[in-house]
Amino acid sequence: MGSSRAIPFRSGDQILITDHGYNACNNAARLIAKHHHAEVIVASLPFPTQETAQLHDAVLQHITPRTRLVLLDHVTSPSALILPIHSLIPKLRERGILTLIDGAHAPGMLPLDLRTLDPDFYTGNCHKWMCAPKGTAFLYVRDSWRESLQPLAISHGENDLRSERSRFHKRFDWVGTGDPTPYLTLPTVLSTLPQILQLSWQDLQQQQHEKACAARQLLSQRLSLPLLCPDHLLGSMAALPLPPLPSSPPPGTIDPLQQRLFTDHAIEIPVMPYPSQNQRLLRLSAHAYNTTDEYLYLAHALSALLS
């Protein structure tokens, strides 16, 4: 939450998050709010949901005159929903509210044009759908905030007098002993998958979306699990509801079903708490290397373990 070094939070300000937000990011919001004597408000997103408008309205309904910042996932981690940030960002800006978008899953999964989106702050990971080395990520900051934003670690760029790069880039380009190697792979990363697969990024994203929706349908039919949203709210991931446990696993622990899938069937797939309810979600993913046989194998393993 490096934006806390740019945003002058005041006592009584509100930071709006959602109940589908990534736990670590929501924890950061709570810590920043506590430091500034601000307040965290949690917007409950409708789930199951049928329309983008329901998600849009659920966020705006929690806006108050004290809302200073809204933290939104581009693609929610537990429920795999694409949130309508394209419509929310301008609506929030009209009200003088800043937007911080957690785009961890968006790069490589969805078309992404930050100039058109124009959020105040956007972060994204490239090691997921783009297959870049771990640690390859980016931070986008709107022009009006670049002068005041500070990295979490103040390093050499703070007093770098060279003029060929902006002060913003000098502050963030070389932080302590950070290794820039992963970032230097990005030009190769951008061309590698299209070369291997003979597909454009746009076609690959569409293929992954269709594969994820088909896998969700397969598991739904084989295991009699309901579909929680229409296909158009999904990218390359989908979530399905699972029967609840007698008691929820403690925070930070692995769900026993996830553990059994891995140890008994060599399947790596997350099982996580259902937002706002005492249930669980199985979140599947679909990349170029996944096959229908793998989802059939998953359905068979789940059928055995859930019975």
Structure description:
The chain has 307 residues and is α/β, with parallel strands linked by helices. The chain folds into two domains: 2-184, Aspartate Aminotransferase, domain 2, CATH 3.40.640.10; 201-306, Alpha-Beta Complex (Aspartate Aminotransferase, domain 1), CATH 3.90.1150.10. The chain has ten helices and nine strands. The strands form two sheets. Strands 2-1-3-4-5-6 form a six-stranded mixed sheet, sandwiched between helices. Strand 8 (271-273) and strand 9 (280-285) form a beta hairpin. The termini are far apart.
Chart the SSEs and their pairings:
Layout: E1 14-18, H1 23-35, E2 39-43, H2 52-60, E3 67-73, H3 85-94, E4 98-103, H4 114-117, E5 121-125, E6 137-141, H5 167-173, H6 181-184, H7 186-197, H8 201-223, E7 237-242, H9 256-265, E8 271-273, E9 280-285, H10 292-306
Parallel strand pairs: 1-2, 1-3, 3-4, 4-5
Antiparallel strand pairs: 5-6, 7-9, 8-9
